[in-house]
Amino acid sequence: MKTDLVIEKPSSKAHGEWRKMELAGYWALRFTLVLVLFILGVIVFDIVSKGAGVINWEFLSQPPRVGMTEGGIFPAIVGTFYVTLITIAFAVPLGVGAAIYLNEYAVQGRFTRLVRMSLRNLAGVPSIVFGLFGMAVFVKFFGFGPSLIAAGFTLGLLTLPVTVTAAEEALITVPRAYRAGSFALGATRWQVVRTVVLPRALPGILTGTILGLARAAGETAPILATGAAFFLPHLPDSIRSQFMALPYHLFIMATQHHSISQVRPIAYGTALVLLLLVCILNLAAVLLRKRYRDRVAKGL
Amino acid sequence: MVKLNTRNIKRENETAVGYLNNLDEGQTENMENGYSEVKVEGLNFFYGSKQALFNVDIMVEEKGVAALIGPSGCGKSTFLRVLNRMNDLIPGTRLEGRVTVHGEDIYDPATDVVKLRKKVGMVFQQPNPFPKSIFDNIAYGPRIDGQKNKAVLSEIVEESLKGAALWDEVKDRLHEPALALSGGQQQRLCIARALAVQPRILLMDEPTSAIDPIATQRIEDLIRDLCTDYTIIIVTHNMQQAARISDNTGFFLQGEMVEWGKTSQLFTKPEDQRTEDYITGRFG
């Protein structure tokens, strides 16, 4: 392998050393990537190969039967869907509002730096801690009881740091010149935000939010103590109802069921459905970002 | 202190032309009151602890073009942004002295900054059209001002684009993205956008420095046309431009206004040695 970078002609020994190091580095780094892809591939292959066989219309549309050894996971799909909706209703307005305040209104300084640092730390808090907090605050203190709303709010809290950070990043990408142009025309701060900043930042905000939600939809720990149920024959009929959820159902089928080996295929099927759900959410985020890029390229 | 509320006159009118007529009356009325268009007395300006302007005094009369020249970092752009309080948006800035626009102290706590900025429009160094259509860019100002009537908006858009000598080039593609226009066209669009809110004064911060020579020529012609209806204060790093288009010129150096006077006078018989050194190219 010849290289253009060598200016002085090195002694042949030094040259050989140098090449060996370079090659070793190249292959070591290449190997790490291959390893990562391999691990990912094994996980996906394992879940798809063992789960695909279980998935059919009945699995997706029926509740579990015969002590959860037969039937489907319909209530868990619905429960995850509902709880995600509540998470959205809680986290999006709060997170986006906070981000707008932090980025557009607040005087940048020690306080905003402190807030941003706290948010970053909050994002690192283990989800089981959020679960415990949700139980103490939403289930007990506010008296929601174990319910969709308590679990949705808890997941909302969990995603808030992500939502705020993503929304702020989207707001920062809006060129300052747009704000200056708008202010110079006599716009109030809120008009600047509403007519120039938000339209431009919205796709980015949504993309970040969806990625956060995809994460939340798969969480088990925060809903464990706040409303997810082992088994419910009915669908939840109000936000105060308990609910079944895909990640929790998977946890039960994998570890808590009285005959784990018998229900293993159901567990894999549940895992696959959960995986697909998260994939769909991520795909939505990707498509949204693409549409946004196209729009920016067109200048609208 | 006379507080003229020209914006309210506008709302009562259903057409842009009617509004223009009323505004003319308003201007006449104010002229009779004998106020300078812009009067600055003892202005000191600070970015944090760093002083950017030192004891600036200036009086700009109505209509015509006033140019501000000086080397980079001399404070001329800072001074321009004092006049529509765009510096308010920069944290940690502070100002001493008195700045009146048409007799009204614009740094009085009671001053409505939003109203001030509608009266004192601004065009920036880099053309900054919004990522919206040409129409929506021009209609932006009237819309945030509450104008919803489509016919009125169309009329304002047409008048403003004609005012900025851009109408003929864009009349068939008003709903295409403004960012698809050339740099020079974008800058004239920004001028049209500023005209649409019916300002009295137009501040221009090196409006041609990011634009090619031919487009620059068009904008200079436009500035000469506009100055019969508007007071234009332009910051430029280009002395020839100041000499070509301005009636009065101010020379800034290290935050001080060294000299202010008739352009013909300042460029031929400057009073201050530093002005002479600058315009003859000895530094800057």
Short description:
With 300 residues, chain A is an all-alpha fold.
Could you outline the blueprint of secondary structure elements for this entry?
The complex is a heterodimer of chains A (300) and B (284).
Chain A: H1 12-51, H2 57-61, E1 64-65, E2 70-71, H3 74-105, H4 110-123, H5 127-141, H6 148-172, H7 176-184, H8 189-217, H9 221-224, H10 246-256, H11 260-298
Antiparallel strand pairs in A: 1-2
Helix pairs in contact in A: 1-11, 3-6, 3-8, 3-10, 4-6, 5-6, 6-8, 7-8, 8-11, 10-11
Chain B: H1 6-12, H2 16-32, E1 38-47, E2 50-60, E3 64-69, H3 76-83, E4 93-101, E5 104-105, H4 113-119, E6 120-123, H5 134-144, H6 150-163, H7 167-170, H8 183-195, E7 201-205, H9 213-226, E8 231-235, H10 239-245, E9 248-253, E10 256-262, H11 263-268, H12 273-279
Parallel strand pairs in B: 3-8, 3-9, 6-7, 7-8
Antiparallel strand pairs in B: 1-2, 1-4, 4-5, 9-10
Helix pairs in contact in B: 1-2, 5-6, 5-8, 6-8, 8-9
What does this 3D model show about the protein?
The complex is a heterodimer of chains A (300) and B (284). Chain A is an all-alpha fold and 300 residues long. Chain A has one domain: MetI-like fold, CATH 1.10.3720. In chain A, 74% of the residues lie in helices and 1% in strands. Chain A is built from eleven helices and two strands; from the N terminus they run ααββααααααααα. Chain A has a two-stranded antiparallel sheet. In chain A, α3 crosses α6 and α6 packs across α8. The two termini of chain A are 49 Å apart. The N terminus of chain B is likely disordered. Chain B is built from twelve helices and ten strands. In chain B, strands 6-7-8-3-9-10 form a six-stranded mixed sheet, with helices on both faces. The N and C termini of chain B lie far apart (41 Å). In chain B, α5 crosses α6. Chain B is globular, with a radius of gyration of 19 Å. Chain B has 284 residues and is α/β, with parallel strands linked by helices. In chain B, 40% of the residues lie in helices and 23% in strands. At the A-B interface, α7 and α8 of A face α4, α5 and α8 of B.
